[in-house]
Design a protein that fits this description.
Blueprint (H helix, E strand, L loop, with lengths): L5 E5 L3 H12 L7 H11 L4 E5 L8 E8 L2 E3 L5 H15 L6 E9 L3 E9 L9 E11 L4 E7 L9 E5 L1
Antiparallel strand pairs: 1-9, 2-3, 3-9, 4-5, 5-6, 6-7, 7-8
């Protein structure tokens, strides 16, 4: 007989169906659920991932919260493309370059860069007042062209958390 699992969810309703579906598909096994959710988020180039919240977890309950994807550090993007991307984010999301806080590297190669750029944002619904955009740069050596694309809501929604209790 499988262990019974209770899920407590707070945040966006879009994720509820994902959680319930995963629970059914995975037979209520809890350990890989954060990995499975994060794989889906990575495929969608979401700027957030789920991480275990050790400060709230205990022997009976595992708490997960959203965190910015990638590793903080210097951006791999040259100044020309950085300025171009920041100008587009400002134009579409009203997030000025002066609100930029950090770049977080998600993926980096000679032809592809994926970073999460984090901004101070008074319209963010998160408690910390931050919003993030995934910025992707794809270089095509045959055409010598770099395409830039973005993923993520202009103003990040309230943080989603969930927990598993046995």
């Amino acid at each position: 007989m499988k262990d019974s699992v209770m899920i407590r969810y707070t945040g966006r309703t879009v994720g509820v169906l994902s959680l319930v579906t995963m629970m059914m598909v995975m037979g209520c096994a809890t350990p890989p659920i954060d990995k499975a959710l994060n794989e889906g988020m990575a495929k969608r180039h979401a700027p957030l991932r789920y991480v275990l919240d050790d400060s709230r977890s205990n022997a009976g309950t595992r708490f997960f919260r959203e965190a910015w994807a990638g590793e903080p550090g210097e951006s791999h993007v040259n100044e020309r493309y950085r300025k171009m991307a920041l100008d587009r984010i400002n134009r579409y999301c009203d997030l000025p370059p002066s609100a930029f806080i950090e770049a977080r590297t998600v993926s980096f190669s000679e032809t592809y860069i994926e970073e999460v750029w984090v901004f101070r944002d008074p319209l963010s619904k998160r408690e910390d007042g931050l919003s993030g955009q995934t910025v992707m740069f794809r270089y095509d050596p045959e055409t010598n062209r770099t395409d830039v694309s973005f993923s993520g809501a202009c103003h990040t929604a309230a943080e989603t958390t969930f927990s598993f209790a046995r």
